[in-house]
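Iron ABC transporter permease
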Amino acid sequence: MLAALLVGAADLPVTGVVKALLDRVPFVDVDSGLSTVERNVLFELRLPRVLLGAMVGGLLAIAGAGYQGVFRNPLADPYLLGAAAGAGVGATLVIVVVPGDPAFAIPLAAFVGAISGVFLAYALGSTAGRGNGSGAATLVLAGVAVSNFLAAVQTFLQQANAEELQRIFSWILGGLGLADWPTVAMIAPYALVSTVVLLLHGRLLDVLSVGEEEATSLGVSAARVRLIVLVAASLATACAVAVSGLIGFVGIVVPHAVRRLAGGSYRVVLPLSLLLGAAFLELADLFARTVVAPGELPLGVVTAFVGAPFFVVILRATRRQVDT
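Predicted structure tokens:
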């Protein structure tokens, strides 16, 4: 985060940035030595973008860990139940229907769309899987069906409004270029609630990982844990995609890396995924806005460059475990 604050089109001095941040702490009075322009760059451009990037990366990573814990599958990601497709439809609708530049309406519509997509998948999966003992598998299939349906709706909207394709694709590819303080404030309460709920369910996910029958014998309601974790993880995902667009692979790569480094206990995986996800997206965003400066790469492209090879590694490791 400090590196992201310092590096950019206008490089800022390390000492000045640290002093300027300390000066904002209550009862601390420090002269940063930064000019007015440098302070504006720091507090109006860099700091909200850095905070938003940390929130988005952390939310996607901890949501991915939650999904993987519920479905007991390291290949599960935060977009499994239709959050990405729902957000895409919501954002596309606003872009093609609302005249002008509805910048603040796009995140709100994407948030509502993501929540609606997950709700539809859960309702469909719960109804179809009732009584057959295959709730988790049915829920995944419902998520696939809902995602494909919503993707078809979005494609239809794009084809019917070809003049807006550039704006639609710029949102889909992801980025933090429009970060500001109102956007940070908009998602902060939801991000806090979803993160706290997920962190509090680490021990229960460990119990659930041994199997539903064993969890039930220990007094843990697998259905209730699954529902709470899915709701919290879906809320975290909706917050992230609403303000950043579709950024892939963070929810798969980061939790898997944490398990490699620190073991499989979700009491460890969840908080470390939150921290490592924030750091990973900060580095990706730093690369995206500096490698082709003064231009900017789509953030989703950068994470895909890193995540796609890592995903292949996960697939190979998972296949070896199955074969064994």
